[in-house]
Amino acid sequence: VQLQASGGGLVQPGGSLRLSCAASGFPFGSYWMYWFRQAPGKGLERVSNIDTGGGATYYSNSVKGRFTISRDNAKSTLYLQMNSLKSGDTAVYYCAKDLSGVSRGQGTQVTVSS
Asked: Residue 43's pLDDT is what?
């Protein structure tokens, strides 16, 4: 199983980023998928998840209305569109195929700063 997140970077408050997660080694279309983040000195936080068909989604209260999760099963890729970014969104972002996040692969750093 490989889960490789990308698309992070440095962005000013109010800006946007789109994260991608390339998945391989398992039947991507058969799994709910998850985005997690971990800020410095804090625990792992579930940010969002999406069902196999993309019709059902969940967002944490901290990102609801600003982030949008989506997936392309044909490309085995998960996305997270992040808008109106705040300094509190600064974290390493991971994708995973389980609710606990234990399957998460290499993350991507998102830094929101002026």
From this structure: 96
